[in-house]
## 1
Amino acid sequence: MSLYRSAAIAGVAESRLGIVPDATVLDLQAEAAIAALADAGVEKSEVDALFCTGRWGRTPQLEIGEYLGIRPFYSDGTAVGGASFLFHLGHAAAAISAGLCDVALILYGSTQRSRKERSLGVKQGLSGQYEDFAGLPNPVGAYALAACRHMALYGTTREQLAEVAVAARQWAGLNPVAFSRAPLTVEAVLASPPVAEPLGRLDCCLVTDGGGAVVIVSPRRAKTLPKRPVWLLGHGETHSHMLISQMPDLTVTPAKEAGARAFAMAGLAHRDIDILQIYDSFTITVLLTLESLGFCAPGSSGTYVSDGRIAPGGEVSLNTSGGGLSYCHPGMFGIFLIIEAVRQLRGECGARQVGRHETALISGTGGVLSSNATCILAGD
């Protein structure tokens, strides 16, 4: 079954971002939902499908549905880490295509910065016993292992990793709501305090509060809306492991399979993509994902991102919001990849708007390089 143009993104929005001590996680999701519905020109009463996940509640869909007064006909709480919302995008399109719903709302929110909820020692239940005893910090230690492997195999350098952080900061400097906007250099990234060798603090994503919302509609409903819809052309998803010790190859992520399916469904090639939004939980995540998606050969991603190629004015428009490294990262970043891609495709990004913006690829990674969903989008 193909999801090609089976659904359109009609509205996107963030809540307040950064440090929001006076808000609950429900407040932030409500703020984003209200703004996204207004952006779409859709009434809350029309929402008949609800998608959300997060560690903030035992039953997130029930809690946010009650809070917003939404009683959906279809609901999905797929939880595979930060990639979850790209999984939700494909699932919403499938549900719409099957006639199970007409207007879907994808939500996420977190107050991890204000409430100091982020922990590097999250227990992983039954499977965790096989790694916890070794003291590996989670998740940064897992990504550090992957970075070490890539360096050992291909000669990738810390300077090349730092290029990802520097480019993200340059994009963030053009984004008025980005959390970190001060200029950043490769030297500053290399000098940042070590977290897990070879990753320093500035190789790691932010810890912020924030929420996001995305409105997905049927083709029929899309024709009636005031704004230009953004169409889903291709979608692929998969997951390969829970623990980093069980990852089949530390340098090849599930984006290889998910991306191939997305490209095949969309009927496009890599050269057809104008904008890339790649999950950047850590600098190494971007390098591994670019290779797994096929934008560069194995071992060549360090060169691919260097010399300003992914910075504003470079050859590749990548993570134009500033990404999880500089824009925001409320624990799970995937929904913000969708938001930025839609705004770029609509031409709504002001100073950071890229010239070519007909197509976009968004690729979300979850867990410890465990899951991936890749979506290809296009304007009307």
## 2
Amino acid sequence: MRPSAAVLALAGCLAALGGLVGCDFELNDGRTATLTYTEDARAAYNEAMAAFQAKDWEDARALFGEVKRLFPYSRYARLADLRIADLDFEQGKYPEAISEYRAFIQEHRTDRNVEYAKYRMAKALYLDIDDTVFLPPAEERDQATTLEAYKEIRTFLRQYPRSRYREDAAYMLEVVTGRLVRHELYVARYYLKEDAFDAALARIDYALRTFPGSGLDPEALVLKGETLLKMKKPDEARAVFESVIRDWGGPFAVTARRFLDEMGGPRGTPAKKAASGRAPAGPQL
């Protein structure tokens, strides 16, 4: 795509005068216009935005590039950087968008659009988490991108507690937190199945400590109690099950109650089946 005639004429004019004053040039229809550097930059940016809004991605990218090249000292050059990141975001090119938003944040730390750039970078990380049906279940996959999204979203919410993007960011945080906790519990169950009890307990405690507010605490605690039972620590297991009943309720409290019944009921009663490691019926863990 070639720059418009107006942009080409403007570029020549600015080159001749150093961009310090306005100049006159003839438009296609014979009219004469006098434009300042800022007005010229705005006009070129608006032309690029028109292509962007029309989803003419190729032309928009070229036009934003022209804005950056011809008007590097205007605020429209910074906006062009941001819109190029938006171009990649809108086309689902999330790694490229993440890199471009990050560069904008680093290069323009005091710009008023940094909040927007940080939000979009976090959103791009969130959307870059691959959940296609052709992959293993989410909890079985590598969580590097999910963890990076978790960190960026938490940082954003901490830095901008009253942001207009807060509601969406809070929702994304809830989703990625749940996914990270489910991954830890998946690994813990694997270790439990292999009788690697210490490793299972470590993953459960890590999940509870590192990702508070996931909503999965009662599930994690029931799994912790079951692990302690298999480690032949019935008193610690009983305390965990009782905390689920007391503090959480819900379906996992029912499971915790069944474990306690299997153990012989109230605290201090000798355990009946703790050594067997057989889990009672209840919600699927």
## 3
Amino acid sequence: MSVPSHHPLNVLFLCTHNSARSILAEALLNHLGRGRFRAYSAGSNPRPNQQPNPMALQVLREAGIPTEGLRSKSWDEFAGPEAPHMDLIITVCDQAAGEPCPVWPGHPATAHWGYPDPSALQADDAAKLEAFRHTMQRIKRRLEMLVALPPDKLARACLQDSARALAQA
């Protein structure tokens, strides 16, 4: 089962700071997508010197998901003419979903898959780590459904409807 094009489907995950949920989604889809997908992540407003949350990296490593190359970055990196063309852009936090986005080259399909921010939990480290694991599992479940979609559901004409339907899953 392959995407009916010569290149992988490029997916950009957006969050506010690009340190937790979007980083988890990027790493998971690159792992699960087996070359059919190429995932990226960015933030609408990453803090200066923002880095991926150490707990996000920890739960990915525990799950056997590679973390090399993951970094926090602004969504401006993906809005310019030199950026990779995106086929699908998914916001994973409610705040980023409500912000005015750049005009994306090629007018990619969009969807919103909201998840609570595990790093915002006011709890001890053990409880926060469990929140990161739970968030990662929720994202993984939805991404497994995305990669299992038949090629016709990933075609440009259907991609937005398919991705948005997974938000209800």
## 4
Amino acid sequence: MKKIALLFAFVVGLVQVQAQVRGGINFFKGTLKSAFALAQAQNKPLFVEIYAIGCPHCENFKKTFDANAKVGAFYNKTFINYQLEVNSPEARAFRQKHNIYVLSTPLMSFWDKDEKLLHIQSAGDEQNNEAYIINMGERAINPQMQSAIWKSYFKQGMNDDNFLIEYAYTCRLLCDTTDNLAAMRTYAQKQKPEMLSSPTNFVVLQKIIMDDENPLFVNMMNHLEEFNKKFGAQNVKVTAENIVMYSLYCSRAQQYSPEKFTQMKEYLRRLGIDEQSIRGRFVWTESTILFKAGKDIEAANLIDAFCKNVKQIDKKDAAFIENFVKTKTTNPAALEKLDWIFKKK
């Protein structure tokens, strides 16, 4: 049956390729599963463009993919090609399976015939040209240049600035927070003081850093006025706020000390976030830690204080809070403290 399936995929792919205009890239028009079956049958890697409907950058790439003969010749010879709409059920399942976080579209990914990732990178209009697109494909099939080997290079001590930026960004795409933090700390430690607030490093803060202890982030928070003047107060606020939230909602937050939470809240105050909003962002993480430590009353008091400042708690909110609390404690005093919330469901 496997041989029949592979033969079917091969025939379907051949018919589709012959039916298409031989100008640009011939994208397979079946399912992703069938595309991998065709890759198996032809012993080729698979190029998967993850795009979004309505994305102008994706539309611009489509024009190049459809019309450029040299791009088409290279990709059709080298890969089985497939386009995956980012919000489709097929794409969601594929992204979840491989821990892919789409930061922007289009996202270009390359896979071997056995569905092992070879190379992945985002692309924008500045990369939408014949030379770059072909070079991207060449990197994907070169074992010394594809992103699959970068973790090994990093472990071996490679620390060129451009490499660290590209590797850390790829770690974000693949949800590898541990190496993202490590690469960016190595990068930050190499920066000269006068370069900490450079335009390049602000882009690094916007797109790559996920750690509020990174020296680049700490420098920004200690020089907010300078950053606001150079890059715009709103851009700085969004960038800094995002980094604090990344740090708060990551798994390592369960080991944070009270002092650490105090510092993070202070960062948000500096950005102009109001107190109730700050409480709302921290209450569930902090109370989870307190419950885990057996400090049920402290956790209940924290939730109680936050909820008393909420204008309205509806039935859905009350049900969520009750379920949250009762999965973490059976302490009668803690439950009694919050009973006024539970009754609202």
